Amino acid sequence: MQIETITDKGNTTVKPEGKLTVQTSPELDAAIKQLPNDICDLDIDLSHVDYIASAGLRVLASVAKLTTLRGGKMRLLHPDANVMESLEMTGLSEVFAIER
Q1: Residue 4: partners with Cβ closer than 8 Å, 6 or more residues away
Q2: What pLDDT, on the 0 to 100 scale, is given for residue 96?
Q3: I need a surface site. Which of 2, 72, 74, 90 has the fewest CB within 10 A?
């Protein structure tokens, strides 16, 4: 899995690419946990993720909790139809801020 992190003018975006499965989700989790503690708001660009398993959804939930504890927020950007379907089926589409 490729993961790009971009910080620009105080805004941090993490851009994973590929499938978020039980094998690859720990990579995303580790990449986010390596970010400085002063980052409160985080965008996760899902435009290049074509599948998300429950392990990937757990990572997103964990990140959302972390950003909330830091007084910030997490946004999911541009999920494709398959990822959006998973978010809707689990009810997480009502919990996460999603920008299509």
Answers
A1: 14, 15, 17
A2: 97
A3: 2
Alpha-carbon gap, residue 45 to 43, rounded angstroms: 6
pLDDT at 41: 94
Tokens of 93: 């589409």
> In b/e form, how buried is each residue of 88-97, taking b as 16+ CB within 10 angstroms?
eeeebeeebe
- Mean pLDDT across the stretch 68-88? 96
Q: pLDDT-based confidence at 10, cuts 50/70/90?
A: confident
Amino acid at 57: L
- Say if residue 38 is exposed, middle or buried (CB neighbours under 10 Å; 0-12, 13-18, 19+): exposed
Give dist(CA 22, CA 56) in Å, integer: 7
pTM equals: 0.94
